[in-house]
Amino acid sequence: MIDPILNRPLRAIAAGLADGSLNACDVTERAIALHDPTLDAYMAWEPSAARQQALAAGAAFAAGVQLGGLQGIPVSFKD
Fold first, then answer.
1. Neighbouring C-alpha atoms within 13 Å toward the C-beta of 77
2. What is d(CA 21, CA 25) in angstroms, rounded to the nearest whole number?
3. How far is CA 71 from CA 18, 33, 68, in A?
4. What is the distance between the alpha carbons of residues 14 and 22, in angstroms, rounded to a whole number?
5. Residue among 67, 74, 70 nearest 25 (CA)
6. Per-residue pLDDT of the chain (79 residues; tens, 9 = 90+)
7. Cβ neighbourhood burial of 29 (10 Å; 0-12, 13-18, 19+)
8. pTM of the prediction?
9. Per-residue three-class SS string for the chain
């Protein structure tokens, strides 16, 4: 499945988060929805932590605080 938001270039997602046209919680939920547990690709899968971090990123955006270029963008690391 191709998500129309997550399929955008990273710069476009970051710009949308910064200008408020995208929401960090929504972007994170879209990424979580794509997770396929049958692949067993990650040693640790922590969607609740991702949700908490998205809330914090959204609050920072709302307060006008810029934390860096990946603020609000969900990332995963393959071990």
1. 2
2. 12
3. 8, 20, 6
4. 9
5. 74
6. 789 999 999 999 999 999 999 999 999 999 999 998 898 888 889 999 999 999 999 999 999 999 999 999 999 887 6
7. middle
8. 0.90
9. CCCCCCCCCHHHHHHHHHHCCCCHHHHHHHHHHCCCHHHCCCCCCCHHHHHHHHHHHHHHHHCCCCCCCCCCCCCCCCC
Terminal Cα distance for the chain, rounded: 24
Q: Which long-range contacts (CB under 8 A, 24 or more apart) does 62-70 make?
A: 66/18, 69/14, 70/14
- Chain centroid to Cα 72, Å, comes to 5
Assigned token pair, 67: 């934390």
